[in-house]
Every structure is written in structure tokens, then in C-alpha cells.
């Protein structure tokens, strides 16, 4: 297991800016608006040859009526629980606040190394003002840093890494990445929490709660893969806040980075235009896909409901409808393991490599049975087929006149490949090449 460093503190002290500096990228959303980070955000960092994980947390607030604050505070407690070392960040520009005092009380019960870090000390006079933070009673030196410029972070990290137990880091690079996507409020975070059996992500009835993509290693029931929760994708016209825009960008990137996407739709609302946009985004990126019809427990059913609903979904997603559809409920955990099995089967389908000899023996016979139609008096002769060494399944058919092979015949070839080999849930590309 890797060492974990959690960055905690009240809202808007610069936790996400430090997080981004430590992991060397813009992973956490940073704005001047407080309370933007709602979930825990994970990243990898390295200092003096020691690798570690960093957790960015939402700002801790006490005695607030905001529905998110209770959930954010739960997330902060979970982060403190997971961490080996805690960075407690305060704001030297604003000075000591009651919230800092309340947080310090909480941290006195944490039996882990806590580093008191005064941020925004770009101006030297603030370093003198920052001495007041010793009143917090945290048993630590005071580290004066600037998350934006990076000054002081080296001294901080030199001391942080001294507290690491070991420096082996979990290698997840070879694991399948299964990304959960969908419109806001279809039950993505609830599905992940139900699968993991812990409140890994914030769940409220307010759409758009998850703003950052979150990676979780799933290692149970004989499965081992990375599960990624994304912010809900909305139509561009509905994306008014900058934060929403960043979240949508992050979701698009999560799809681009995935092996398989579990697209969740809301059974009570049916397939909406935005669901189709996400489905086509997955298809265009050549990712594997499984469709989860969530909230199935809320639907009144007879013995034909499932068959009819499945038929309806397939009509919506045509022509690419060789896709597994699983009817689930995050609330009752109904068929969630079946959904996981389906996703991992799609991963297998997507990564399979067909034997060239077998591919030619079967496909050349299918081509002989139904050759490409004659165009302008020209006959297309397909001599050979091979699977290309691409991330998603692509096949090259070598022939004398590739320009005369039209889309309907390419669809015929794709359907024949699907008939003979299992490519359920995986988009296939067909290329005609000059022999």
C-alpha cells in the first residue's frame, strides 16, 4: 500500500491549488468560489524518490445548514481515516478564524502526524502575521507556503516524507478502467457506493453533486479493476457555471481514458436526448459499453415489462445495438454484480485478438457467399483480412478496389464478425485497404 497524505482545512484556503501542485496537473477544480471540491480527489505524487498518494478534501464546516456540508464533513473524516500524514491548511491572508479553531479541536484527536501549513504567504509580512496560527495548539512547526508559486512546499515535503512507513505504491496501471457515466442524478454515485459497501461518494437528491472524477480500486468477489465515478454530463446549454463546465470536461476525459463505460439511465425517465449524446460519445471514442437501467425497483411491472423496455432501448441506440442491457437498482443492490460481470466481459471482448488464419477461413467464406455488389461494372475482390493492432477492435479487408465498397457492405462484414465472435458492447471499425 502507498503512503497517503490528506490535505484538510476550512473552505477556500487553497487546498486544491496545493493538491494540483503536488500531483503536477490540473486535476482538482480550482476557483475563487468556496466549497467547490465536494468529494475526495486522489492523485499520485513523488518527492525525494518516494511516491505517495495525495487526497484533496472538501472544506470542513461546522454548524452549517447546507445539505452538502454534512456530506463533505463525512468525506473529510474518511480522508483523515485513510491518511498516514495530514496537512492542515490555513489562510495567512485572512488570518485565524473560528472555523480553523473548530477544525484544530477535531485534529487533536487524530493520532497521525499533522503538519500546520499557512498558505498565501507570497508577501513576507504575512509570514510574521502567520505566527498567530500557533494558537491553534497543533503540535507541529508552522510551514509558510504559497500553493500558487510553490515557495515553501519543498521544506514541507522534506519533512512530510520522513513520516512515511514504506515507499511501495500500489500499481494500478494494468487494471481495467470501468467508468460510470450518465446524466446528472441517475444514480451513478449511489451505484458505486452500493457496489463498494461504503459511502465513497457524496449522494444527495441535488443533481450535479459529483464534480470531480473519482478513481476507486475494486478488489472483491474475484474482480480487480478501477471504478471511476464521473460528474453527470449535461447539455452544453445547461452548463452555466464554470465549475459545471470543468466537470463536463472531466467526464469527457474520463470516457476517453476508460476501457468500458457503464452508461446509467433512469428507468423512470426513459432514454433522453442527453443519454443518447453520451452513448454516441462512448461509441465515437470506441469504448466498450454496458447500459444500466437504474431505479428499476420504482417501475410497475408485469411479465412483459423487461422485454418491452429492452426492445425500446435497443430501438433508441440502433444501429449499434449489440449491447448488454442490465436492469438495476442502486437502492436494493439488484443485479449490480450482474452489471459488473457484463462490464468485465465487454473488457474481454474489447481486448481479444483473433487468429488471422481463423479470421480468414471464416470471413472469406462469408464474402464468397455474399460478395460486394458490382459498382459501375467493376467487381470488388477481397483477398485477405487481418485484425489491426489497435486498442479497440479494427479489421482491415484487403481488396483490389477499396473505394467501391460502400457502408451497407461494411455493415454486413461487421455483422458477420459479430455472428462468429463475441464483440457484445464493443464498437468495431472496418477498413478497406488496397491489396
- Percent of residues in helices comes to 25-40%
Low-confidence stretches: 27-40, 199-213, 238-248
Largest sheet, spatial ordering of strands: 2-3-1-4-5-6
Please summarize the sheet with the most strands: 6 strands, mixed
The dominant shape is: elongated
Classify the beta-strand content into a percent band: 15-25%
Tally of extended strands? 15
Explain what you see:
The protein starts with a strand and ends with a strand. It is an alpha/beta fold. α11 (356-369) packs across α12. The strands form 3 sheets. The chain has a 6-stranded mixed β-sheet, sandwiched between helices. The chain has a 6-stranded mixed β-sheet with strand order 8-9-7-10-11-12, sandwiched between helices. It has a 3-stranded mixed β-sheet with strand order 13-14-15. The chain has 12 helices and 15 strands.
Summarize the SSE layout with pairings.
Blueprint: E1 3-8, H1 15-23, E2 41-47, E3 50-56, H2 67-82, E4 85-91, H3 98-107, E5 114-119, H4 124-129, E6 142-144, H5 153-161, E7 177-181, H6 188-196, E8 214-218, E9 225-229, H7 242-257, E10 260-266, H8 273-284, E11 288-294, H9 305-317, E12 325-327, H10 336-351, H11 356-369, E13 382-387, E14 394-399, H12 407-420, E15 429-434
Parallel strand pairs: 1-3, 1-4, 4-5, 5-6, 7-9, 7-10, 10-11, 11-12, 14-15
Antiparallel strand pairs: 2-3, 8-9, 13-14
Helix pairs in contact: 11-12
